């Protein structure tokens, strides 16, 4: 593609009646073709070819059948990212079962809720995590190891699934209540064309995704590039994200195409000589999961000489908007709607807002293959969310004069101060441009005179200490970049910010705290 307009005009959806993720992503590749380079945190490196994944996925499918797993059953997994885990994913889909993959970073209560709510028949885990789940919640607990896989026959005939059959169960946290399960059909993977349009994945190139294999931003960057023939570089971390080890891994294995997150990028920004210490062969780097601040884009460009392409979406529908290699990147923008995705910015009456005005990002319902089958065991919520003409993201944004989308925060995060509507993201971005600020979150704080004022919770960068002088300096910095009404009239320095496991700031916790403290 040479232009956005060309990409949109040429786009068509092709969804066959019968489709299975495992057959498309795994079984179609030549057996001797390299599929994965896996590195354990102890330094052990394995090269895995498609023949190994094909055979092991067949063996695992037979193991599941031997334990009574049939089409439509849920298979829960609590595993680190390994070749065996990937094979287990494929084996689950070959059985026609529904995969629920959980991160080992989840708390025990979160794991219990997902296993219990999904009514999983089988839990697949390893020795390190087997004690974290009550075995009475499932019919079988299986430890994924060589002995288990060897017990299954290497030949298996995959279930002849419809594209519409359920394949994936993701749990996503909302602002209230327990995490809800979102059910995706096999067809949902066909809509993940960010690997075509944004990443421009080439056959045989080395791809790395930094997301956990437990949510859409982790599993899609595993499966999507594999569809197009990429070699997956997989790093099994010992604990949390460590920027030095991450960049060293990418450098040594010569990654050319990378999916990252703003949280990971901000962590990397602490390495001032990253470009020289960890030279890379990056061709394309993309980011999603939360808004990508302009200063992170500029840092990456200074270190590695390329512009990170940001894209946006939710577990329910992902990605809706993106930046593309064939289009000008406007720092801070989420780009333009994905080809084939009918995305609009609407008001409360589901009418388009004038260009430049704030509204809610909405997707025309059932207009693409990614559209969910619904919420798991929650028909009322499914009808409310997916039953109408539009899927409401509850994210606020505006279109500029050229059709670029500019994020302005969650629709319920908007700050109204003295009659002014202020998006928290723009305040946070301005704060982050100050050299003393490592992280920032902006929320409304009750105020007798103005109704509310902007308050910023700030994590300081190394080498800076809280002071009244620093507060005034940050306030002046933001005032000069935004306006006299949008700067944070209150600033509180904190050690860290409340976040989801995917790194998104939970402003709702900060808002609630402000309300309680000012009640």
Question: In which order are the strands of the major sheet placed?
Answer: 2-1-10-9-11-12-13-14-15
Strand fraction: 15-25%
Poorly predicted sequence stretches spanning 5 or more consecutive residues: none
Report the C-alpha radius of gyration, rounded.
23 Å
Number of strands: 25
Largest sheet: 9 strands, mixed
Number of helices: 16
Give the overall pLDDT as a whole number. Answer: 93
Coarse shape: globular
Question: Structural class from helices and strands?
Answer: alpha/beta
The portion of residues assigned to helices is 25-40%
Characterization of this structure:
By secondary structure, the protein is of the alpha/beta class. Helix content is about 30%, strand content about 25%. The chain is built from 16 helices and 25 strands. Helix 2 crosses helix 4 and helix 3 (about 50-65) packs across helix 4 (about 85-95). The protein is globular.
Short description:
The chain is built from 16 helices and 25 strands.
Tags for this model:
alpha/beta, 4-stranded parallel sheet, single chain, 16 helices, 519 residues
Topology:
Blueprint: H1 4-10, H2 21-27, E1 34-40, E2 45-49, H3 50-66, E3 74-78, H4 83-94, E4 98-102, H5 108-118, E5 122-125, E6 140-143, H6 146-150, E7 166-172, E8 180-185, H7 194-197, E9 206-209, H8 216-227, E10 231-236, H9 243-252, E11 257-260, H10 262-268, H11 274-277, E12 284-287, H12 294-304, E13 309-312, E14 321-322, E15 336-337, E16 343-346, E17 359-364, E18 374-375, H13 379-386, E19 390-399, E20 405-410, E21 415-417, E22 420-422, H14 424-432, E23 437-447, E24 451-460, H15 468-481, E25 490-493, H16 507-517
Parallel strand pairs: 1-10, 3-4, 3-5, 5-6, 9-10, 9-11, 11-12, 12-13, 24-25
Antiparallel strand pairs: 1-2, 7-8, 8-18, 13-14, 14-15, 16-17, 17-19, 19-20, 21-22, 23-24
Helix pairs in contact: 2-4, 3-4
């Amino acid at each position: 593609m040479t232009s956005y307009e060309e990409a949109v005009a040429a786009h068509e959806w092709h969804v066959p009646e019968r489709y299975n993720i495992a057959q498309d992503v795994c079984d179609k590749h030549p057996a001797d073709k390299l599929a994965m380079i896996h590195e354990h945190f102890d330094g052990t490196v394995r090269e895995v070819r498609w023949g190994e994944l094909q055979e092991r996925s067949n063996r695992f499918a037979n193991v599941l059948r031997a334990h009574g797993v049939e089409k439509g059953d849920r298979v829960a997994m609590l595993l680190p990212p390994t070749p065996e885990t990937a094979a287990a994913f494929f084996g689950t889909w070959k059985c026609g079962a529904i995969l629920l993959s959980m991160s080992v970073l989840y708390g025990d209560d979160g794991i219990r809720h997902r296993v219990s709510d999904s009514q999983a028949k089988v839990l697949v885990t390893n020795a390190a995590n087997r004690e974290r789940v009550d075995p009475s919640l499932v019919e079988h607990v299986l430890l994924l190891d060589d002995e288990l896989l060897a017990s299954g026959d290497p030949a298996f005939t995959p279930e002849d699934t419809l594209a519409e059959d359920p394949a994936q169960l993701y749990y996503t946290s909302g602002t209230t209540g327990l995490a809800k399960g979102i059910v995706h059909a096999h067809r949902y993977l066909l809509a993940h064309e960010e690997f075509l349009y944004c990443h421009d994945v080439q056959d045989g190139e080395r791809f790395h995704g930094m997301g956990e294999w437990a949510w859409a931003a982790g599993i899609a960057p595993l499966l999507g590039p594999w569809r197009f023939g990429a070699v997956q570089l997989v790093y099994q971390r010992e604990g949390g994200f460590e920027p030095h080890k991450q960049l060293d891994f990418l450098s040594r294995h010569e990654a050319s195409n990378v999916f990252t997150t703003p949280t990971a990028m901000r962590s990397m920004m602490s390495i001032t000589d990253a470009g020289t210490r960890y030279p890379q062969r990056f061709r394309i780097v993309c980011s999603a999961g939360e808004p990508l601040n302009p200063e992170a884009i500029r840092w990456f460009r200074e270190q590695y000489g390329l512009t990170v392409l940001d894209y946006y979406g939710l577990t329910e529908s992902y990605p809706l908007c993106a930046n593309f290699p064939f289009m000008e990147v406007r720092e801070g923008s989420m780009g333009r709607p994905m080809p084939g995705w009918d995305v609009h910015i609407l008001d409360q009456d589901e009418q388009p807002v004038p260009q430049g005005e704030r509204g809610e990002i909405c997707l025309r319902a059932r207009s693409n293959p990614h559209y969910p089958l619904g919420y798991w065991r929650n028909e009322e919520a499914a009808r409310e969310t997916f039953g109408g003409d539009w899927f409401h993201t509850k994210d606020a944004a505006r279109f500029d004069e050229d059709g670029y989308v500019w994020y302005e925060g969650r629709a319920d995060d908007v700050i109204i101060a003295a009659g002014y509507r202020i998006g928290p993201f723009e305040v946070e971005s301005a704060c982050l441009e100050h050299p003393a600020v490592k992280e920032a979150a902006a929320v409304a704080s009750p105020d007798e005179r103005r109704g509310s004022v902007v308050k910023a919770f700030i994590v300081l960068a190394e080498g800076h200490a809280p002071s009244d002088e620093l507060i005034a300096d940050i306030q002046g910095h933001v005032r000069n970049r935004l306006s006299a009404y949008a700067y944070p009239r209150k600033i509180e320095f904190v050690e860290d910010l409340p976040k989801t496991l995917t790194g998104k700031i939970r402003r709702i916790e900060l808002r609630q705290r402000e309300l309680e403290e000012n009640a």
